[in-house]
Amino acid sequence: MPTTTFNTKADYAAFLLRVTTGLFFLIHAGLKIFVFTLPGTVAFFESLGLPGVMAYLVILLEVVGGLALVLGIYADLVAIPLAIDLLGAIITVHAKNGFFFNNPNGGWEYLAMWIVALISITLLGNGAFALQRRGGKSAA
């Protein structure tokens, strides 16, 4: 029976990428909840022509996905819908503002970097210190 060990530099790099990306999603979900407020976030989505319920779905995805990344539970799978979430943000909000994020109203550069990080997580897997090892097995 093959065993999987997590002691390479790549495993630690995957851990660092996974946890920091997850924390950023949690921070941005918190921004939508506590700073913009739920009604404000819903109104913003509606101003884009999106149904208000999408705001709740995005926040739920960012909270659940962020936690999954931080904890290392199906990180390689949860990264895919999170990347789609960011692609939606590029299409609906940031693309018209140009590439650079320091452009007025923020371009899509920053979100593209997040998507690259999520693709890397999908390819690398959970890395070290994950609650779930490759192949769906629990680390406990």
Q: Could you walk me through the main structural features you see in this protein, from its secondary elements to its overall organization?
A:
With 140 residues, this protein is an all-alpha fold. α1 packs across α5, α2 crosses α3 and α3 runs antiparallel to α4. Helix content is 66%, strand content 0%. It has one domain. The protein is globular, with a radius of gyration of 16 Å. The longest helix has 27 residues. It starts with 8 loop residues before the first helix and ends in a 16-residue tail after the last helix. The chain has 5 helices and no strands.
CA(first)-CA(last) distance: 18 Å
Beta-strand percentage range: under 5%
Q: Give the helix level as a range of percent.
A: 55-70%
Structural class computed from helices and strand pairing: mainly alpha
Mean pLDDT: 92
Order of helices and strands: HHHHH
The largest sheet is:
none
Q: For the CA atoms, what is the radius of gyration?
A: 16 Å
Unreliable segments of 5+ consecutive residues = none
Number of discrete helical segments: 5
Got a strand count?
0
